[in-house]
Amino acid sequence: QVQLVESGGGLVQAGGSLRLSCVASGSIFSISAMRWYRQAPGKQRELVAGITSGGTTNYANSVNERFTISRDNAKNTVYLQMNSLKPEDTAVYYCNLDLMRLRLERYWGQGTQVTVSS
């Protein structure tokens, strides 16, 4: 089995920064992609950023040029550096890991709360 543990969330003022981490453990093989999603109360879960096994990154328009996704393969860890935070970034942030073996396997962490005050 695979486990994902997010950390790094907290309360920050608008304009501040946070760095989220997601550590994967267990049977980690054939990583297809790692992503960060977020969900605010009353809203749909949305994709924030993703990175493929080949290193290709993509970002939601709302966070482009403010957030950076990166990974440390040796540590099975993906990061989300969040700069110039805005109140609308407030949400629970979830780590997603996709493994492609015989079929696609998708795993989720429990989430970490990010709150940005004005």
Provide a short characterization of the protein structure.
By secondary structure, the chain is mostly beta strands. It has strands at residues 2-7, 10-13, 18-26, 31-39, 46-52, 57-59, 67-72, 77-82, 91-100, 104-108, 112-117.
What can you see in these coordinates?
- This protein starts with a strand and ends with a strand.
- The protein is mostly beta strands and 118 residues long.
- The strands form 2 sheets. Strands 2, 4, 5, 6, 9, 10 and 11 form a 7-stranded mixed β-sheet that branches.
- Strand 7 (67-72) and strand 8 form a beta hairpin.
- The chain is built from no helices and 11 strands.
- The model has no long low-confidence stretch (mean pLDDT 96).
- The protein has strands at residues 2-7, 10-13, 18-26, 31-39, 46-52, 57-59, 67-72, 77-82, 91-100, 104-108, 112-117.
The gyration radius over C-alpha positions equals: 14 Å
What general outline do the C-alpha atoms trace? globular
The computed structural class is mainly beta
SSE order, one letter for each helix or strand: EEEEEEEEEEE
Helix content: under 10%
Task: List low-confidence stretches.
Answer: none
Between the first and last Cα atoms, what is the distance in angstroms?
41 Å
For the residues shown, what is the average pLDDT? 96
Key attributes of the depicted protein:
118 residues, mainly beta, seven-stranded mixed sheet, four-stranded antiparallel sheet, 11 strands, 0% helix, globular
